Amino acid sequence: MQRFDIPFNKPYIAGKELYYIAQAVMVDEHLSGDGPFTKRCHEWLERHLKCKKGLLTHSGTAALEMAAILCDIQPGDEVIMPSFTFVSTANAFVLRGATPVFVDIRPDTLNIDEKLIASAVTSHTRAIVPVHYAGVSCAMDEIIETAHQRRLWVIEDAAQALFSTYKNRFLGTIGHLGCLSFHETKNIISGEGGALLINDEHFASRAEIIREKGTNRSQFFRGQVDKYTWVDIGSSFLPSELVGAFLFAQLEQAERIIEVRNRIFGLYYKHLKPLHDQGVIRLPFVGNECACNGHMFYIITKNLEERTLLMQALKKEGILAVFHYVPLHSSPAGQKFGRPVGNMRVTNEISDSVLRLPLYYEMHDEDVARVVRVIEQFYGAESSS
User: Fold this and answer.
1) Is 282 left (phi over 0), alpha (psi -120 to 50) or beta?
2) Percentage with pLDDT > 70 across the chain
3) Which of 11, 92, 314, 336 maximizes the CB count within 10 A of its CB?
4) DSSP letters of 55-91?
5) Of 316, 264, 347, 305, nearest to 85 (Cα)?
6) Which stretches of the chain are assigned E, i.e. beta strand?
7) What residue spans in the chain does CATH classification 3.40.640.10 cover?
8) Residues in CB range of 362: below 8 A, 6 or more apart
9) Which CATH number fits domain 17-252: 3.30.420.480, 3.40.800.20, 3.20.20.70, 3.40.640.10?
10) Domain with CATH 3.90.1150.10 in the chain
């Protein structure tokens, strides 16, 4: 397996991660779920994001699966989402017997086109799942209004969007439910891990039960019931306390981590903007109502052939850049379990031309300059870095 001088992503230690793991083992003597560090993470999410309740899960996928159960998604139901997203967005609802209904994306933000949602709604529609691609917000006002008119749940897939905002509100806290990921490719990491943000209070008590294998164990430990038992469907959605310990150390440094990533994002944007202005490539778009968390920097090439050649040029120089995603509507499982609305033209074009550049916490300015130089040389441009 080739090792790259500049990898696409690199896990990192930001503060007291190893110290807190040792404390969980040697002092707290608690390794299973919902120990002291997990509770600290819950409190941190609720305090900083202003959600009604935050619950750690073992992955962002688990948070989406919990959301599907909480919204009582049933066989025959339909859930509207973009096709340009990771498989977990759809899988969570397919597992409940629902049909993902794929809607095209906007060419500027690469998020679900809010103007196409209403025409995708049928009598079977139960929820809308906006995915905040690259940490840039969907048009949430329009989405919430459509959902309100049609009495639909809104489940934000904010896996890439921790600390991004829309009109000064944190993404993941605007819909009824929000789903975060702490996978090692995200800004704030715990290897694997995620969180369910509960913004509609009536979901709170049932969410605890579903997360704890369908038992009222949390109520028992708070002294609200005299014994705990099986009361609902559920699964073991909670993570190990080691995950919570690692994550809490990252959350303590979250502001600095986001600041570093936004600075790297800014460097890329500054040095690649001449190529954007010349119409050679396209750069990410962040609207005036949004603040981005620096999760991802991508460029949009002319076509698949150009992207492939650029990836090869970068790889030759020891730089790993990757594409994102194969559209769900054209995948084998997507064709089996879901259905698209419309021709999905933008999704198809973007999936062939988007290229994600390396961006990670320990990336140096000279690394960014090196990536930029290879791109400039590929397009025959004079170096701006």
Assistant:
1) beta
2) 99
3) 92
4) EEES-HHHHHHHHHHHTT--TT-EEEEESSS-HHHHH
5) 347
6) 53-57, 78-82, 99-103, 125-128, 153-157, 165-166, 169-170, 177-181, 194-198, 290-291, 297-300, 339-340, 354-357
7) 17-252
8) 10, 12
9) 3.40.640.10
10) 254-378
Give the pLDDT of residue 228: 85
Q: Tell me the helices (H) and strands (E) count for the chain, helix number first.
A: 14, 13
Measure the CA–CA gap between 242 and 156, rounded to whole angstroms: 27
Q: Amino acid letter at 302?
A: K
Reported CATH class of domain 254-378: alpha beta
- Structure-token match 């090869």, residue found: 312
* CA-wise closest residue to 105 among 87, 122, 117: 117
The reported pLDDT for the residue numbered 220 is 73
Distance between CA atoms of residues 371 and 109, nearest Å: 23
Instruction: Summarize pLDDT for 150-205 with one digit per residue, the tens.
Output: 999 999 999 999 999 999 999 999 999 999 999 999 999 999 999 999 999 999 99
Q: How far lies 333's CA from each of 99, 100, 337, in Å? A: 11, 11, 6
Tell me the residue length of the chain.
385
The phi and psi torsions of 27 (rounded to 5 degrees) equal: -105, -55
Handedness of CA 245, 249, 254, 259 (dihedral sign): negative
218-240: burial string, b at 16+ Cβ within 10 Å, e else? bbeeeeeeeebeeeeebeebbbb
Q: How far apart are CA 183 and CA 195, in angstroms?
A: 11
Segment 98-155, tens digit of pLDDT: 999 999 999 999 999 999 999 999 999 999 999 999 999 999 999 999 999 999 999 9
CA distance 131 to 92: 14
Residue type, 304: L
Give just the sign of the alpha carbon dihedral 361, 58, 290, 358: positive
Copy the structure tokens of residue 240.
């190990």
- Of 255, 27, 275, 291, the residue nearest 136 (C-alpha): 291
Quote the CA–CA distance of 348 and 268 in Å, as a whole number. Answer: 25
